[in-house]
Amino acid sequence: MKQEFIEAGEIVTTHGVRGEVKVNPFVDSAAFLAPYTRVRIAGRTYPVVSCRVQKSCALLRLAGVDSLEAAQALRGKTVEIFRADVPEGVVFACELLGMQVYSGDTPVGQITDVLDYPGNSVYVVTGQREYLLPAVKEFILSIDLEGNRMQVRLLEGMGSDED
Fold first, then answer.
1. Residue of 102, 99, 119 whose CA lies nearest to 111
2. Rounded CA gap, 142 and 91, in Å?
């Protein structure tokens, strides 16, 4: 289901004395946060003054957070991005959980987990059977976040209890 906000990372510490915060990303990489001009932290919107990558973390400078003390007050908080700011076609695992899956007009089940592997993600679909669906275009035909529906193509042997 399409969400208004997406959890993108956690503020783990401060950086320097001018109010920068270090964010450990929940998404693919720290560079993912770079294009966003605003974030939400603890229900408050902060304009992003700058974002740069340092190793596996993002260093954010936020408007209104101009001191070490102000930055320390944000430690441990979750950084969220606005779904409206995300490019069209980008889908997050958290939006897929609970999505209804269909093969043609036949209901298959709903997504109960998303497993991340180096090659691609795998969707765990639970219904009368459990299916492990690779998240590739050959099997995932369409995703409708608004309608909470995914169309898939199943092959023989994809079910967990099939030989």
1. 99
2. 11
